[in-house]
């Protein structure tokens, strides 16, 4: 039997080193499910890291949560799902706090909540309730640390390296800002790829195109007759 302390420490390390890649989230999710008999302890690790880490890392953990719940549901180990449903409000408050320090994470929270709803992990009523809270927190640009706002409404020319902490987390430094931009770029790239992905099911693709096609009308017959006339005239000229 694995040492519970060692399992907790390794899982904590994986959460701290999550990035924008799907592999890092899947690896951590597989690890959690491998030691599912310690699910309550591992769930507490997730909540603990959401309180301790930077806003960048909290965003990565939010994406990881979707992977974990999806895999747990497919493997029929629903304890992780139940615990996340129970604590989802606390998770959202940690990733996008009401004090505005996590305004850059509001879009992340929305994407994950929509994904959890589509997978039937969260009920629509819960998502609507959380969305009402998020509207009040979505007040800053996607990367607020890039352009701090002064009291007179003007943007500061440089990013401060030492700024007061909000919700226990200081404003992102230059390295964290660059990391966040790069991770967001990677996620947007994957999102575009998924949008353009075509199913291998040819029948399904045919049915989709058939449904999108409009019915044949009188204009279509007239256009076909005009095309046929033009072709005949072209043949006669040749």
Topology record:
Elements: H1 4-16, H2 22-34, H3 39-52, H4 55-74, H5 79-95, H6 106-118, H7 124-137, H8 174-196, H9 202-212, H10 218-237
Helix pairs in contact: 1-3, 2-4, 3-5, 4-5, 4-6, 6-7
Structure description:
The protein is mainly α and 238 residues long. 66% of the residues lie in helices and 0% in strands. The protein contains ten helices and no strands. Helix 2 (22-34) crosses helix 4 (55-74), helix 3 packs parallel to helix 5 and helix 4 packs antiparallel against helix 5. It is elongated, with a radius of gyration of 25 Å. Mean pLDDT is 80; it is low at 141-164 and 166-170.
Radius of gyration: 25 Å
Helices, by number, come to: 10
Q: Distance between termini?
A: 86 Å
How many strands, what sense, and barrel or not for the largest sheet? none
Helix/strand structural class? mainly alpha
Q: How much helix is in the residues?
A: 55-70%
- Strand tally: 0
Name the assembly state: single chain
Order of helices and strands: HHHHHHHHHH
Shape, principal axes of CA atoms: elongated
Low-confidence stretches: 141-164, 166-170
